[in-house]
Amino acid sequence: MRTFTLTAIILGLLFSQPGSGKPKPEWPCFHGPRRDNKSTEKLLLKKWPDGGPKLLWTASGLGKGYSSVTIADGLIYTAGMIDKQTHVFAFDLDGKEKWRRLNGRSWKTTRRWAIGYTGSRSTPTYDRGRVYHLSELGRLVALDAKSGKEIWHKDLFEEFDAKPPTYGLAESVLIDGDRLICCPGGAKGYIVCLEKKDGKLVWANNKVKGTAGYCSCVIAEFGGFRQVLSMSSAVIFSVDAKNGNLLWSVEHGNRRNNNATDPIFHKGHVFASSGYGKGSVLVKLKPVAGGIETEEVWADKIMDNHHGGVVLVDGHVYGSGHRSKGWFCLDVMTGKPAWNTRGKGSLTYADGMLYCLDERGTMSLVKATPKAHRLAGSFKLPKGGDGLYWAHPVVCDGRLYVRHADKLFAYNIRGK
């Protein structure tokens, strides 16, 4: 019996993880494990066949919204609005729903021209068996990742004296070790840090100018500080992750009070972009005694990213403009454009290629090179409901995941 059991265990270990036995790739939060919107996967398709890659499955029932997906520990997480309520969902890797949990009322616009914008925005964040989600109206919840059972929740608007911004909160919360960081935009805390285990307050900073932006925080180590970088409606800013002290801020607002693109840290510099004609800027950080000073390197309106995000690859920034229509490639250190082509949308990066989702529903594969816009395939996505294609695409474990409204599509992009 012992011999049989040992043999069974060995065989199980050999066949449970095909190939090298390495753990499967994961995408545990918005824009991936490093929050840089870049996958480290290799051996993906470099060219798509006519009609695009193979559609593996379609999941339905996500409701309305623009949340992207998080993938970890064999499950896919997202959020959506159903019957004016925000729900967090978990699906298995075959697209079958495993659980759903309420997370309070959903944001709904009162402006007729913005009715199509209604629905969830924040992408859930996975960490060590828990899923954290921030609703549009400030309800922050921690859920058990396998069952969806609620562990704790907090009303951030109530606790930090905040009001919902024009389009509701869109931030995906940041986990930093044992702490959770997010921006309720309140008078008692524009940016706050909580214990991730129970939601207890660690620090709060109310010195940031402006109202809540629509982007998510990123971490940067520089000048002796572990910095938390983000944007409010008015400024690019940095706080000390240790205690929340404001380290620096730079004016960067637009006429719509709408900053939705995550900043990028690169070799002692911070790149930021904003829509509505504002454009992009590169800020140099300079360590000084007890702090950090800033200096503008360049600023230009040529790429005013709306909310589709940007990605930095080999010293060049890729993304699309808003008023300055088109997909762009810029030299990050000079702001000089390398190429520009028509379109607007969101994107992600993997294995030397850009996965560009036009907001009208065309998915394109583009080589990530400053030499020219080199298209390697495109196809028209199915419709999942009403509204534009604004949810950011995700590449994970040989698959391309794209969400539109009520549906999530999974495509096989693994190379042969």
Task: Chart the SSEs and their pairings.
Layout (H helix, E strand, L loop, with lengths): L1 H15 L21 E2 L14 E7 L9 E3 L2 E8 L2 E8 L4 E9 L19 E3 L2 E5 L4 E6 L5 E6 H4 L14 E3 L2 E4 L8 E5 L5 E5 L12 E5 L2 E7 L3 E6 L5 E6 L12 E3 L2 E6 L4 E10 L2 E10 L9 E4 L2 E5 L6 E5 L5 E5 L3 E6 L2 E6 L3 E6 L6 E7 L13 E3 L2 E6 L2 E6 L4
Parallel strand pairs: 1-27
Antiparallel strand pairs: 2-33, 3-4, 4-5, 5-6, 7-8, 8-9, 9-10, 11-12, 12-13, 13-14, 15-16, 16-17, 17-18, 19-20, 20-21, 21-22, 23-24, 24-25, 25-26, 27-28, 28-29, 29-30, 31-32, 32-33
* Proportion of residues in extended strands: 35-45%
| Fourth-tier CATH superfamily name | YVTN repeat-like/Quinoprotein amine dehydrogenase
Largest sheet: 5 strands, mixed
Q: Could you tell me the radius of gyration in angstroms?
A: 21 Å
Which spans of ≥5 residues are poorly predicted at pLDDT below 50? Answer: 1-19
CATH class: Mainly Beta
Report the total helices: 2
How far apart the termini lie comes to: 42 Å
Quick overview:
The protein has 416 residues and is mainly β.
Question: In words, what does this structure look like?
Answer:
The structure is a single chain. With 416 residues, the chain is mainly β. The protein has a single domain, classed as YVTN repeat-like/Quinoprotein amine dehydrogenase (Methylamine Dehydrogenase, Chain H, 7 Propeller), CATH 2.130.10.10. Helix content is 5%, strand content 45%. The chain is built from two helices and 33 strands. The strands form eight sheets. It has a five-stranded mixed beta sheet, with no helix packed on it. β11 and β12 form a beta hairpin. The radius of gyration is 21 Å and the shape is globular.
